[in-house]
Every structure is written in structure tokens, then in C-alpha cells.
Amino acid sequence: MTTSAIHRGLAGVVVDTTEISTVIEETNSLTYRGYPVQDLAARRSFEEVAYLLWHGELPDADRLREFRARERALRPLDRSLSELLARLPATCHPMDVLRTAVSLLGAEDPAEDDGSPAANRAKSLALLARLPVVVAADHRRRRGLDPVRPDPELGYAENFFHMCFGTVPAPEVVRCFEVSLILYAEHSFNASTFTARVVTSTLSDLYSAVTAAIGALKGPLHGGANEAVMHMLEEIGSPERAETWLDEALAAKRKIMGFGHRVYKHGDSRVPLMQEATDRLVARAADPEATRLATLHAALRQAMLSRKGIHPNLDYPAGLAYHLMGFDTPAFTPLFVMSRITGWTAHITEQLAHNALIRPLASYAGPAQRPVPAAVR
Ligand code: SDX
């Protein structure tokens, strides 16, 4: 048995290779299948990025047309999912709704245990198409509204707004949402993706791996941070209170949501683009409340940088952007799931392609071996 050093949280530990993306800390950049994510977010649609992550190449016009047609045809929810949504309490967290919905889809899939690349690609596309319908229907039921059917004439991002709000906002709002989806799609061996790979490494099914990944992403140290950012801004209340609030929070050893990162130590490569998109939303809103929030958001960011030298991560601008788009705060992390389902399922396929059961060691720190005392009477 080896007695290697302990790496808590697996910080800095390389456990496998991947061809899907790389986070280049030195140059503070991120590439998906070799393409800089900033260029993809500026020039491509989320559907094209999903295709790229799954297939390794960007689709040509014919393949994109066929991909979009298949995604749109898969959107409609069948009755059992609609009935499930109606039965879950409106007080449960939207991530619990998503986790349960994926579990139901797996239970109903006769091919659940078929882990072939073709079967998993079909499941992945079905999840890409259906998760937004679940998130939108859940968003509306919490507001006492009936679901809005998906519209096969609309693109992925437009259709999501249509299903949530019954209307499609201005193109720059849709574009900001699409930028967030592209930036959230994939990030190498983050906690939820690694969770999906651990489950897949036992040769369990794709739905089990995705359900586990949703559970991991829900945590505020990971995907749950974008929701926590909004709660934090509401707690601070005004730009004038940002510094005092921060000093008190840091003194209380609180983690400031939306800041810091295990890999990026000089700033998350995705933040500048997301911040620009969020700034455009604020300018477009031309509304005192949006301006006040943006001022508070900037003040906290500056204070955190000056006091701790810690930069924001993607969740920090994304949380404000989703609020400005009109989404309810608890729905922010489900938006992350709608995007990261692409990265998760790409890694599931990759793990299966050259699988090794993931089973690390532990250094034992419990009691030395001892005899069991006689049973008490
Ligand atoms: C995501 O891995 C990915 O790629 C994740 C992600 C993806 O796309 O999948 O990028 C998405 O999960 C982004 C992270 C979202 N989480 C948050 O915003 C929650 C707040 N952040 C922190 O909890 C923290 O920064 C982590 C968890 C993100 C990273 O933690 P690390 O790498 O384990 O760093 P650390 O906790 O060891 O911090 C080092 C020091 C500590 O100070 P000391 O105890 O050594 O004095 O920096 C401090 C920390 O206290 N610190 C913070 C802080 N982040 C680090 N202090 C206050 N607030 C913070 N946010």
C-alpha cells in the first residue's frame, strides 16, 4: 500500500487526461476542444458549442441544421414529467426538481443501461432539450402559472425565454443569456464533472451520473454560488454598505460568494466577457434599481480585491445578469445545469472511452486494532 502525501480536496492533483477542454491558469484562458471560449462566446451559438463538446468539431451548416431539428423535436415533456412537477412541493429547491426529473427520465428510459456512445449521445441530446422545459415549467408553477409549450420555431435560448415568460426579449438580452450558457458549458475536472466521472467509472448509467452531478453542483462552494451571490447583494442592500459588510463578513470567516477559484488564482478567464454582457444589460435596463445593484456589485468586487486580492469567478457577474433577466434567484443554478449538461455528458462519454474505476486511497487516522469486548448483558 503506497503512503503518498495527502492532497485534501485533490487540490493540484492530476487524475486523468481529457481532450474536451483545458483551463490554462498561466495565460488565464480556457479552450473547448482547442477553441478559446471567448471566441466561441462572441461568434457561435450555444447549440454549436454543445455539438463541439460532444463531437470534437464545430458543425457545418447541414450538421447544425440537423442537430437543431433533433433538439427541437425532443423538447416536449411527456405526461409523467408534467405530473411529477405538479406533485413536487413548490417549496422544494429547483435543483431538487431537476435532480428528480433526471432520475425519472432514467427510470422511464428502456435503454437506461445502454452505455454505448450512440445511446449516450441520444440521451445527452434529450436532456439538453428537456431540462429547459422542466426549469421553465417549474419557474412558472412557483408563480402560480401554467406551463408554456416549447416552440419548435425558436432557437434554444429564445425558446427558453418564451417558455418562462411567454415572450422573447430583445436580441441583446437573449445574446447575454447565450453568452452565459457558452461560458458555463464546460470547465474540465470541476467538482460536479468529476462526480459524473466517478459514477461513470463504475459503469453505472448516464442518468445516475447526471443526477449525482446535479447534487454536487447545488452546493454554494460550486454552482450554488450564483444564487448565493444574489442573496448576498440583497443582504448588503446598498453600495455604501459594501465595505462595512465585507469587513464584518471576513472577520466572521464567511466565504464571499462568487469570489475565488481553485484553479484561477489571478482571475477567472470567463469573467470579463460575462461582466461586459452584464454591463450591457444594466445600460439597456436604464433603471435606477439595476444601476444601484450594479454599483453595489462593482463596489463589493473592488473591496474584495483590495482587502483579500481575491478575484470574482463566473458566478459573480452571472448571478446579477440572471436577476436582471427576470429569473427568480433559486432558479439560477438550474440555468447552470442547462448549460453544464453538455460538459458533463461529454466527460461521461470520454470516461467510458478509456475507463478506469476511480477509487483513491485514504490515510487511516482512527483507533489502532483492538479486541471486541464481551457483549453487555
Ligand atoms: C465554480 O472548479 C471549477 O471549475 C468550478 C467552476 C466551474 O465552472 O465548474 O468554476 C464553478 O464552482 C466557481 C466557484 C463558485 N464558488 C464560490 O464562489 C464560493 C466562494 N468561493 C470559495 O469558497 C473558494 O474560493 C473556492 C471553494 C471556490 C475555492 O476554494 P479553494 O481553492 O479551496 O481555496 P481556499 O478555500 O483554500 O482559499 C484559499 C484562501 C483561504 O484563506 P485562508 O483560510 O488560507 O486564510 O483564500 C480564502 C480562504 O479563506 N478564500 C476566500 C474565498 N475564496 C478563498 N475567503 C473568502 N471568500 C472567498 N470566496
Automatic annotation (TrEMBL):
Pathway: Carbohydrate metabolism; tricarboxylic acid cycle. Signal peptide: none annotated. Pfam families: Citrate_synt. Belongs to the citrate synthase family. This is Citrate synthase. One of its GO terms (molecular function) is citrate synthase activity. Keywords: Acyltransferase, Transferase, Tricarboxylic acid cycle. It comes from the Bacteria. InterPro entries: 2-MeCitrate/Citrate_synth_II, Citrate_synth-like_lrg_a-sub, Citrate_synth-like_sm_a-sub, Citrate_synthase, Citrate_synthase_AS, Citrate_synthase_bac-typ, Citrate_synthase_sf. It catalyses: oxaloacetate + acetyl-CoA + H2O = citrate + CoA + H(+). It comes from Streptomyces pyxinae. PANTHER family: CITRATE SYNTHASE, CITRATE SYNTHASE, PEROXISOMAL. The keyword tRNA-binding does not apply.
